[in-house]
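just leaving the lab so this will be short. what follows is a protein written twice so to speak, once as letters and once as structure tokens for the fold. can you read through it and tell me how you think this chain folds. anything you notice is useful, everything is just below:
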Amino acid sequence: MLNRDKLYFASDIHLGAGGYAKTREREDRFVRWLDTIKADAAELFLMGDVFDFWFEYKTVVPRGYIRLLGKLAELSDAGVKLYFFKGNHDMWMFDYFEKELNATIISNELIIERNGKKFFLHHGDGLGPGDHFYKTMKKIFRSKFCQWLFARIHPNLGIGIANKWSQQSRIANGKDTEKMNLQQEWLVIYCREVLKTTHYDYMVFGHRHIPLEVELEGNSRYINLGEWVNYYSYGVFDGKTFKLEYFS
């Protein structure tokens, strides 16, 4: 009998970035990783930007990614609970994954407690100080009116424009790493502000594309999951401790 007792976390796979060949290579690697966790995973948290672009029309979704979706369906059918977080690249998720994969869609943060450990989970975009332009654009893109307008565009044109735009992203152009001053890192600043009022054992994010662990006040930890273009990093909680690991 399978002992499903682990929580797995991954973010920023950015399928679609870099063209078809690179996407297929990245998808194959990610699917191989999913295959290694299917025996002991209880829950899988996909914490945003799984896709470099995603929009669900009423009867149409972007083509491709069939191997990933098939493997996720296999995990769901085996009893693994799936969570999809809306990232800044794939914020236009609605109910497709809920219906097809029995997944839970997370628009902002998710707070959970497992084995006495409290988790704060968020993709990481739009948090902390600064970046006011993006925060404004996020409100616009997430508005019902903006989504309604985009849905009026024929998929061939709408998805084509969006895919062209996504190719300008930093990860599509190999600019996905940057040096950090941890004292000025805005997600660390955000975590420290939150911890002033509420304790979390683990505060887990994606978005920044750098696998990172930072010890915070009160035995809390900030964890960034990294990405799957260069690092192939992920998080795993075994019921006692949270670890960042890498898939070769």
User: Anything to note?
Assistant: The mean pLDDT is 87. The first helix runs from residue 20 to 37. The helical segments are 20-37, 66-77, 96-101, 132-141, 144-151, 155-166, 186-195. The CA atoms of residues 60 and 89 lie 18 Å apart.
